[in-house]
Write a structure and sequence with these properties.
This protein is α/β, with parallel strands linked by helices. Helix content is about 45%, strand content about 10%. The protein folds into two domains: about 240 residues, D-Maltodextrin-Binding Protein, domain 2; about 210 residues, 3-Layer(aba) Sandwich (D-Maltodextrin-Binding Protein, domain 2). The longest helix is centred in the C-terminal third of the chain and has 18 residues.
C-alpha cells in the first residue's frame, strides 16, 4: 500500500486518508473547544495590526463571490488592508489554482477551493496553510469568530487526514428535491416519504401529452454522478470504502443505477441525457417538471417572478430516505491561505477569512439565497426570514439536510476521472445499456487509476 514520505503525511495510509472524508469531522470538532477557549481568552482584538498590507484573492464566479466582493470595502475600513479580488468561472478557477499552486509561487494570497474536488490535491500539493495555529492564537483570532459555530458537515470537508484544517468552510451545498406544489395539488399528492414513493409520484405526475414530466435531473456525463450517489446513499453506501476499495458494482450500486435510469428514461423530459443543472433548472422554472433533484444553491432564480413560472409555487424537500438509510449528498467550498505567501500577508489573509466567514456574512448568505452557510448560528437568527423571498420550508430543508449530510463524491485525488468514467456509464444506461454491465466495465476501467493514485 502506498505511503507518503513527506513530513506531513509520513505513515498515513489510504485507509486513514479516505476515512477522513465524512467521518473525520470528529478530529476538527474534538480540537475545537481548546482552540476556541484559547482564542476567546483575549480581552481586546486589534483589527488594524496588518494595516497597509495588500492581499490578492482568487474567487469562484457565483452569487457568493458577489456577496464577498460587496463586503470588501467594509473589511478595508475595519482593517486598513487593501483587497484585490478576481472572480473566475468554476472550471477555469480550478485549473488556475492548480497551475499556480503547483508552481510554488501563486499570484494570490487567499483562494477558494472546491473541497469535494480539490481537498486531496491541496493536501498532496501542500497548497494551503494549516489554520489551527491561527485559530488558537489570541492575537490573530477575534473572540467573535467562534470556531465552534461551524457545522459538522463543513468541518468534515475542511479537516484533512492528519487533523489539520487548511480551509474554513464557507458554503455547504445539500442535494434535495425541488417540487412544484401546484402540480402536486392538482393530483392530490403529498411530498414522497421514501425513494420508492418518489418513483411512484414521478409516474403519477408524468403527462407527455401536456409536456409535463414527473422528474428531471442531470444526465450529462460527469455532471450526473451526484444523482446516482444520492440514490446510493439511500442504500447507506459510498462509492469507495474506507480502505480504498471500489464499491461501484455492488448490488446496492446497481440498484441506485437502475433507479437513476428508470427516473430519467420513463419520467423525465426528452433529451435529459444532455442535461446539466442549468437545463434542469430551466425545465423546472418553465413548469415542465414536477420534481428536480439537485443542490439547494440553485434556488434563487426559481423565486424570481420575472423569470420563473413557478415562483411562489416551489416546495423544498429533503431527499427522501432510501431502503437502508436517510442521507443528503453534500458538497462544500472552503477558503484558505496560500502557503507561499509572506508572513505579513498570511496574517492579513487570516483576518480576511475571519471577516468573510463571520456570523454576519454567513447570515447574509442564507438570507440572500446564495447558498447554505457553513455556520449553525444563521439558522437560529430571528431575522433569517425577514424580507426573504423563500418560504419556511426552504429554511427547514437546509436545516434538516444538514443533519443527514454525507459526501456525494469519494474523497480521492482522481475524483474528476472518477466522474468521467462512471458518468459515461450512466449516460450509456440512458441509451439502453444494462446498468450492471456498465458499472462492472467502469469499475474495471477505473480501478488501475485509483490504485496508482496516492490516495
Amino acid at each position: 500500500m502506498t505511503r507518503f514520505t513527506n513530513s506531513l503525511t509520513n505513515g498515513l495510509t489510504r485507509r486513514g486518508l479516505l476515512r477522513s472524508g465524512a467521518g473525520f469531522a470528529g478530529a476538527g470538532l474534538i480540537g475545537a473547544p481548546a482552540l476556541v477557549s484559547s482564542a476567546n481568552a483575549q480581552s481586546k482584538f486589534d483589527w488594524k495590526q496588518f494595516k497597509g498590507e495588500k492581499i490578492d484573492v482568487l474567487l469562484v464566479k457565483n452569487p457568493r463571490a458577489d456577496l464577498i466582493q460587496g463586503a470588501e470595502k467594509a473589511f478595508t475600513e475595519l482593517t486598513g488592508i487593501t483587497v484585490s479580488s478576481e472572480q473566475v468561472p468554476e472550471q477555469q478557477q480550478r485549473q488556475k489554482a492548480m497551475i499556480e499552486f503547483s508552481s510554488g509561487r501563486p499570484s494570490f494570497d487567499v483562494s477558494f477551493i472546491s473541497l469535494h474536488v480539490q481537498k486531496r490535491l491541496a493536501y498532496k500539493g501542500k497548497w494551503l496553510e494549516d489554520l489551527k495555529p491561527y485559530i488558537a492564537d489570541a492575537t490573530l483570532t477575534s473572540p467573535d469568530f467562534d470556531f465552534a459555530d461551524f457545522n459538522k458537515a463543513g468541518l468534515a470537508f475542511a479537516t484533512q487526514s492528519d487533523g489539520s484544517i487548511q480551509t474554513i468552510p464557507q458554503f455547504v451545498d445539500y442535494w434535495m428535491v425541488y417540487y412544484n406544489k401546484e402540480l402536486f395539488a392538482q393530483k392530490g399528492l403529498a411530498y414522497p416519504k421514501s425513494m420508492d414513493e418518489l418513483m411512484k409520484t414521478a409516474a403519477a405526475l408524468t403527462d407527455p401529452s401536456k409536456q409535463i414530466y414527473g422528474f428531471v435531473s442531470r444526465g450529462l456525463k460527469n455532471a450526473n454522478i451526484p444523482v446516482w450517489t444520492s440514490w446510493l446513499l439511500g442504500q447507506d453506501q459510498q462509492t469507495v470504502s474506507p480502505d480504498g476499495k471500489l464499491l461501484t458494482d455492488t448490488p446496492e450500486a446497481i440498484w441506485a443505477a437502475e433507479f437513476y435510469r428508470k427516473l430519467n428514461k420513463e419520467y423525465a423530459p426528452p433529451g435529459t441525457i444532455g442535461f446539466n443543472w442549468n437545463e434542469c433548472q430551466t425545465t423546472f422554472m418553465q413548469g415542465r417538471a414536477a420534481m428536480w433533484l439537485d443542490g439547494i444553491g440553485f434556488a434563487t432564480p426559481l423565486e424570481d417572478k420575472t423569470k420563473s413560472r413557478v415562483a411562489g409555487k416551489v416546495g423544498y424537500g429533503i431527499t427522501p430516505p432510501g431502503p437502508k438509510a436517510h442521507h443528503s449528498a453534500t458538497f462544500a467550498d472552503g477558503i484558505g491561505i496560500s502557503r507561499g505567501s509572506s508572513k505579513a500577508k498570511k496574517g492579513a489573509a487570516w483576518l480576511y477569512i475571519q471577516y468573510m466567514t463571520s456570523k454576519k456574512e454567513q447570515l447574509k448568505l442564507i438570507k440572500s439565497g446564495a447558498g447554505s452557510p457553513a455556520r449553525q448560528s444563521p439558522f437560529a437568527d430571528p431575522t433569517v426570514n425577514e424580507g426573504s423571498i423563500f418560504p419556511k420550508d426552504y429554511f427547514e430543508c437546509l436545516l434538516g439536510s444538514g443533519k443527514i449530510g454525507e459526501p456525494g463524491l469519494p474523497a480521492i485525488i482522481p475524483v474528476t476521472e472518477f466522474r468521467d468514467v462512471f458518468g459515461v456509464a450512466l449516460t450509456n444506461m440512458l441509451s439502453g445499456a444494462d446498468p450492471a454491465t456498465e458499472l462492472k466495465k467502469a469499475t474495471e476501467a477505473f480501478k488501475p487509476v485509483l490504485d496508482k493514485s496516492e490516495l
